[in-house]
Amino acid sequence: MSVIVYGSINTDLIAYTTHLPRKGETLLGDTYFMALGGKGANQAVSASKLGAKVNMVGHVGNDTFGNEVINQLNYYGVDTKNIEVVKNQGSGLAVISVDDNGDNTIIVLSGANMEFDQLDVDRTETLFDDAKVLLLQLEVPVEADLAIARAAYKRGIKVILDPAPAATLPDELYDVVDIITPNEVEIEMMVGIKPDSREDIVEAANMLHHRGVNTVIVTLGSEGVFCLEGSKRTFMPTFEVDAIDTVGSGDAFNGGLAVAISEGKSIEDALVWGSAAGALSTTRSGAAGAMPDRKELMKFIANNE
To answer: How many angstroms separate the CA atoms of 134 and 155, rounded?
Structure first.
């Protein structure tokens, strides 16, 4: 059975400099590289590399960037037939500067990612017969997430929402989401409680649960993961690795979680898969290219039981 990912597809242009430019300053950079990005695309790659049949639904522009990201998604085994190429917008682009201290500035140009109409819902619905999970994020119009989540929820497909980047959500969206996966910043934005203690985390998760979401998973970085499933509470410590780059680790987590859920695994096993995928992704640079494959994940979990 497949995982559907509806979401953003970007090209990341990353420039490395000794320091970040001041107003009016022109710098000669050290090096740069171009990579597949966008939370939707990253999560699609994560799920595909872990063995799921993944269908990506989204938008790119009719330009060089759009052609290249589709080629990269295909390379990672993601089905791109339902990615629409639009003519009136450029492809999504993130322009990133990174200095020698690891500090960065990011300009995101959403472009074609902000396109949405009923045809997007129709194209997604054609994939429902073979789908177990729909994975969503917030780098597309929230009305798109809501419409597509409603359609999937009615068909009994598990809807997982990664509420990133942090935003205030309409009440109706909570009613059609089965699993929500905020980090500490995002859950504070949604409920107004800073999760500084376990009691705070439980209280914040309960607030989201009372809005209609059955399973609330709060990712806590180096502190691990908290899951509230109905009335059941689970704190899971993080896997210990030598992390060098945390970019995309949240996307790796959501990809691992979605694949495990699509295979009918328990929420406890799904948390292990997501946490392991996220941890492994931090041991190498980049986002999509840093996602672990299934063999690597299984070996890592077996060695860390």
So the answer is: 11
Residue with tokens 């935003």: 167
Q: Which residues contact 2 (CB under 8 A, 6 or more apart)?
A: 52, 53, 54, 55, 127, 130, 131, 132, 262
- Calculate the average pLDDT of the chain: 93
DSSP 305: -
**CA–CA dist 133, 157 (Å, integer):** 5
Dist. CA 194–CA 186, nearest whole Å: 10
Grade residue 222 by pLDDT with cuts at 50, 70 and 90.
confident
Q: Which of 63, 245, 251, 269 is an active site residue? A: 251
- Mapped onto helix, strand or coil, the DSSP state of residue 136 is strand
For residue 294, what are its two tokens?
Answer: 């299934």
Model-level pTM? 0.94
What is the Cα–Cα distance from 166 to 159, expressed in whole angstroms? 18
User: For residue 1, is pLDDT > 70?
Assistant: no
N-term to C-term CA, the chain:
27
Residue found by looking up tokens 């993601």 in the block: 78
Whole-angstrom Cα distance, residue 73 to residue 218? Answer: 28
pLDDT tens-digit series, residues 150-171: 999 999 999 999 999 988 899 9
Helical axes 267-281 vs 294-303, angle rounded to 10°: 110
Determine whether 63 is an active site residue: no
pLDDT in tens, 249-281: 899 999 999 999 999 999 999 999 999 999 999
